[in-house]
Design a protein that fits this description.
Elements lengths: L1 H12 L26 H4 L5 E10 L6 E10 L2 E7 L6 E8 L1 E3 L3 E14 L3 E12 L2 E12 L7 E13 L2 E9 L10 E10 L2 E8 L7 E9 L1
Antiparallel strand pairs: 1-2, 1-13, 2-3, 3-4, 4-6, 5-6, 6-7, 7-8, 8-9, 9-10, 10-11, 11-12, 12-13
Length: 225
């Protein structure tokens, strides 16, 4: 329980990717996004929805890599798999439960539990969540990996975004992450993002540590189907 509380606290503090999500508003200002990327049919338990994303990391003085994620949702059921997230050459599989609501304020919360195998091996409680109002959205994800082979490898990961979408197809804002997938002198990396949406596709760009001579740059492509 203490680990989960620390996870929630750190995610709340870190402003900055849940990934490939956007908030739009109707003419009356009602938030219409379903932040957990669950369609109305899926929320009603009538159909599956799927999404896939790939984040390309360009890390100064380190190895560049791609981090793919695939998600499937049906009603309250959430399934997910990740690669190169907890560490490079490491995969994880997740099972979660979707909660959410829409209105003037839209919200979504998905607690999860996952297994991690590869360069890091362990189990992890995790979460995805978001809060949308008007054209603003705060989205977060985090996980507390308990390394079964090396207690010192236990680590709290987080990724978050705070964005404004002046039009339905464009958003910008700030982002943060805490990761061990690559080496960084900063415990929490912060930066800026810009994202573009066209139908089911979303393209985003992130610049972390922009005050450094060689910032980390990330490009992300996501699709829902």
């Amino acid at each position: 329980m203490g680990s989960l509380l620390r996870l929630v606290a750190l995610v709340a503090v870190g402003l900055g990717p849940a990934r490939a999500q956007s908030t739009a508003a109707d003419d009356d200002g009602t938030a219409t996004a379903r932040p957990a990327a669950v369609s109305e049919d899926a929320a009603a338990g009538e159909d599956w929805t799927f999404s896939a994303s790939a984040f390309a990391y360009f890390v100064p003085e380190d190895r560049n890599y791609v981090q793919p994620t695939v998600m499937a949702d049906r009603g309250s059921l959430h399934l997910e798999t990740r690669y190169n997230y907890e560490a490079q050459e490491t995969g994880s599989v997740w099972l979660g439960v979707n909660f959410g609501g829409e209105g003037t304020i839209s919200w979504a919360f998905t607690p999860m539990v996952g297994g991690v195998v590869g360069a890091t091996t362990g189990i992890a409680p995790g979460l995805r969540g978001s809060l949308g109002w008007w054209r603003l959205e705060l989205s977060v994800e985090g996980e507390y990996v308990m390394d079964m082979g090396d207690p010192e490898g236990t680590f709290l990961y987080q990724w978050s975004e705070l964005t404004l979408a002046p039009v339905d197809w464009f958003r910008f804002g700030i982002a943060s992450q805490r990761t061990r997938a690559y080496e960084s002198e900063l415990d929490i990396q912060r930066g800026f993002l810009a994202g573009f949406t066209y139908e089911a596709f979303d393209l985003s760009a992130y610049v972390f540590n922009p005050d450094e001579a060689d910032p980390t740059v990330v490009f992300a492509l996501a699709v829902e189907f």
